[in-house]
Amino acid sequence: MNRIFLLGDSTCARKSDDKRPETGWGMAFPSLVDKRWKVVNLAMNGRSTKSFLDEGLFALCLKDLQPGDWVLIQFGHNDSKEDEERHTEPWTSFQDNLSFMADQVLARQARPLLLTPIARRRFDSQGNLIQTHGDYPWALRELAGRKGYPLLDMTEASADLLAASGPDGSKRLFLHLKPNQHPNYPDGIADDTHLNAEGALVIARIICDRLRKAIPDCPFLVVGKSMGQG
Fold first, then answer.
1. CA–CA distance, 9 with 43 (Å, rounded to integer)
2. What is the pTM of this model?
3. CA 106 to CA 180: how far, in whole Å?
4. For residue 95, what is the enclosing H or E element?
5. Is 50 exceeded by the pLDDT of residue 102?
6. Residue 27 to residue 226: CA distance in whole angstroms
7. Rounded to whole angstroms, how far apart are CA atoms 43 and 198?
8. What pLDDT, in 10s, does the model give residues 150-183?
9. Going edge to edge, which strands form the sheet with 70-74?
10. Closest by CA position to 58, among listed 110, 135, 125
11. What's the whole-number average pLDDT of the chain?
12. Is it true that the peptide bond before 21 is cis, omega within 30 degrees of 0?
């Protein structure tokens, strides 16, 4: 059985029961792909490209990687953090880390796929969406274009979705709960970075649709099945 490895941060990662309904898009992704493929979600909360490499998480992927496998790589939320364990510079170390991962995947005759980070739900006082990832999406786009890595621009796709939904409508996709609405969050929560179950499924569907358009012969997508955004 071929596998699809998911490498990334908390927006993709599996969530423990005490964090639900927070949901990484990687949890919804297996329901949308061909059942003959196994999805291995190695994404972890709080990781950047640097910490993902330094902690040996990428090595776990390489250990099991076989020819024909796919590796989806999405970082950018935490590389801008200032702590030494995670920080990278977009045009140097961030690109270097991504290039190292993609080249190691290619060397094993597997297929890397880069994804820019999904947008945060942040609007200004006029209701315009604010881009919060700085140069990291641009650095990812430039790297993919320069080295020929396939890329899904999920920053653009998710920003378009949030802008169209507006400040109020977009709340339904994120971890927004009123006090006493869920036992895990008795005081409520307003989290504009992390998705809920609906948001995770919507993002996973967009990934599949964008992938179908970018790589029509992608072997793990269900043929002829468009997922849509709802």
1. 5
2. 0.95
3. 49
4. helix 95-107
5. yes
6. 19
7. 19
8. 999 999 999 999 999 999 999 999 999 999 999 9
9. 38-41, 3-8, 70-74, 111-115, 151-152
10. 110
11. 95
12. yes
